[in-house]
Amino acid sequence: MKPNPPPLKTPQTQNASASTSAKANPQWQVLDYLITLVAVVRFDGQVLYANAALEDAIGMSRRTIEAVDFADFFVDPSPFRQAISGARENAFAAIRYEGMLKRVSHDAVPVHVIVAQGMQPNEALVELLPLEQQAKQEREERLVDQALANKELIRNLAHEIKNPLGGIRGAAQLLEMDIHSKELNEYTQVIIHEADRLQTLVDRLLAPHRRAQVVADLNIHEVCERVRSLIVAEFPKGLRVERDFDTSIPELRGDREQLIQAVLNIAHNAAQALSDRIQAGDACITFQTRIARQVTFGKQRYRLALELHVIDNGPGIPEAIKDRLFYPLVSGRDGGSGLGLNLAQTFVQQHHGLIECDSEPGRTDFKILIPLP
């Protein structure tokens, strides 16, 4: 008698096999804490484990991904099969290439693929870095590094200016006492007035670094309502300030005054940019709150984060300053100090968050991201 053939593996038995494999290897579960997309595959390409970030990116559950030939998730599967073949033959410790990862209900996304030897002899570890996400992370890192450099520069520069400034003002006052000519006294008044103006500017530069944070539980919608009342009071006609709130957002830990100041600076800049539309009577600023899930920023992955949008229908940000928007003393408005957005970014970063901006004529969206507990 001929022996019975081995049973065919159905998707159900494959998934059960993968789940059993995952349970037998609890060390794989640590991969869920990574922000990059990671899969553990056998040398025949079968997925043994997919981390949470990979689930989110592909748009499929882990149970569906596991036990499938991972090459099928690529637009061109041949480079992956060649990489797995090389891993099986110990031809390399790790190999890198560029590919296109398929996603459910979305276009394929370009990724940087790294295939390396796994923890077991018959396994390979596959790491995928979405090129868009990689560029975003690099941009965020530059923003953080830039903010730290600006903070140190501003602090040192402000102190260097402040010390001689007091001497200049004092000398001008003494000189004014000895001069009895009204015409010459006007010159000393110019010196005193400009010294006072520079003193005010220096104080504003140092302000975010002087006051310690006062952290407590707060409702972000109370912050928005406070800012809204201030904007409406200053611009009572021609400007509509709308609310689009997600009331399910939980309270967060933060400094209420700092967040009010950060949101106010953004909203005030928006209102000033809307001057033409305010005169026409169709200016609009919208405060929108949402919950972002499984987001990555500042090199960390967060389960939940607050998304606070300040959206206006103004002319947009000039192209010349888009890349330098959060630099100190950079302004797109005549007479602007260029400190508002820099100060807002500083306060938000002190809450482990960041500010992003998307702008085009007719719509500018400042998005504040802050981790939620």
Question: Would you kindly provide a written description of the structure presented here, covering whatever features stand out?
Answer:
- With 373 residues, the protein is α+β, with helices and mostly antiparallel strands.
- The protein has three domains: 11-135, Beta-Lactamase (2-Layer Sandwich), CATH 3.30.450.20; 136-210; 215-371, Histidine kinase-like ATPase, C-terminal domain (Heat Shock Protein 90, 2-Layer Sandwich).
- Helix content is 43%, strand content 26%.
- The chain has ten helices and twelve strands.
- A five-stranded antiparallel beta sheet has the order 2-1-5-4-3. Strands 7-9-10-12-11 form a five-stranded mixed beta sheet. The protein has a two-stranded antiparallel sheet with strand order 6-8.
- Strand 1 (37-42) and strand 2 (47-50) form a beta hairpin.
- The longest helix is centred in the middle third of the chain and has 48 residues, at 131-178.
- The termini are far apart.
